[in-house]
Description:
With 504 residues, this protein is α+β, with helices and mostly antiparallel strands. The protein has helices spanning 2-37, 58-69, 95-104, 110-114, 132-147, 174-185, 207-220, 263-272, 280-290, 295-306, 311-322, 366-380, 386-390, 397-408, 470-488, and strands at residues 47-48, 51-52, 73-77, 80-84, 91-93, 123-124, 128-130, 169-172, 192-194, 197-200, 226-233, 239-245, 248-250, 256-257, 329-330, 362-364, 425-434, 440-450, 456-463. The strands form six sheets. The chain has a six-stranded antiparallel β-sheet, with helices on both faces. It has a three-stranded mixed β-sheet with strand order 2-1-6, covered by helices on one side. Strands 4-3-9 form a three-stranded mixed β-sheet, with helices on one face. A hairpin with a 5-residue loop joins strand 17 and strand 18.
Amino acid sequence: MESLRKSRRQNLSGTIALLFIAAAAAVFGFSLLTNLGAARTLPGGSTWGGVPVGGLTVEEAAARVEAVFSTPLELRYLNETIQVAPQQLGFSLNTAAMAAEAQRSGPGSLWDRLWSRSGASSTLELQYEIKGETLRAYLTNEIAARYDQIAQPALPIPQTTQFSPGTAGWRLDVIQSVQRISQALADPANRTVELVVAGESIPAASLQNLEIFLKQTIAASGFNGVAEVYLQNQKTSDLLHFASRSGTDIPVDIAFSAASTMKIPIMVSALRRTSEPIPDGVQQLIERMIVLSENPLADTLMENVIGSTFAPLEVTADMQDRLGLKNTFLAGYFYFGAPLLQLVQTPANFRMDVNLDPDVYNQTTTSDMGALLTGIYRCAQGEPSLLTDTFPNEITPSKCSYMLDMLARNEIGVLSEAGVPDGTRVAHKHGWTEEADGFLHTISDAGVVFSPGGDFVFVVFLYDANQLLFDPADELIAQLVQVMYNYYNPLAQEPWLAGPVVFP
């Protein structure tokens, strides 16, 4: 009996053990099926393109990355802020490729999955595309077109001799901005971009605007004769040259009566024949010829230094044959009744379209006189010049400096001098004379203006076939030179205070 009870107890224990084993197997099987069938989550610490995705399913990770990289970029253009969707900038994500790569990395070990343990964290590079053409087009058409400010040059102010100050500008640097935006589009944290904007300084007024302004100044005065203007910047060599008759453009290089402007060529010819140091007697003659504009002293200088009855023709030879100034000549002395030594024909006075009946004794053109003054100026600066190239060892920088000093002492208070600020150095020679009918027909001024904004050579000739009244002609030349001065000195412009210039 005891043996039977013992056997029953053993059978019961075995049954219970089997039940426990079966239960354990059932729990194990259920856990295995549950973990194998459950959606896989990414290991903790995993990132996609810098975005944390640990603990998320692949689908959830893709959605999070899409959300992060779809947030607008904040573009800053100076003080302006622009919010832009990445898609507008040509940006697109490829989260499908990232999800596929995550799937290929494979599940964790069976025991990891069985016991719900995470595998090692993983990092995926962001997979995306930026269409450069779309990005550049957006910056050009939407940003630059709206926010760029083009620098504006100084422009003439009507009814004055002055120019507007102009305005500075700025311009989007598309190339550098593309680089910065491309970096930000792929950055999950920094979604702000300072666009690269380059400043533009105020450009100088154009020579074209200057020419228009000078022509408008002539027209506003009511001058209906012939005007020719020559201007050259001595630093840049930029040249402006035009001629007009009654407001209509005509070809330049008109033959004009030179009058006292011919004394500049005489001075050059005399000094090339004079050794240094320049004798006091020669200096006195030059001073009275240039500073006091005495014609008899010009004749004396030619007789004593250049020599012979034909000294004027030697001046002509220096100008035409040696310096190449084909339209400049002196065919006789200045004294009344002096014989005409030669009837000189030039390209300018042989023109058929314009004939101002210039003096047969002395003539020049604006370009000849401008070239001669430029030669003197550059020679004085010690630079290669027309004079030193043509007359080596005869015309020297010290002689050229002397010539400019003499011209600067020609202080008459009118013409070009009246158009520039007090104290401005103007080395010039003027010319006018009454003709056989007793009237003034031609007036001229030619020289060098020394200014903070640049030194320039100018030559202005005015002619009226009927009668050229001195006062308005004088003021018009002053106005023209003032416009030139203000063009080169936009920050120190001189106002015209003398009232309107009016030709009757």
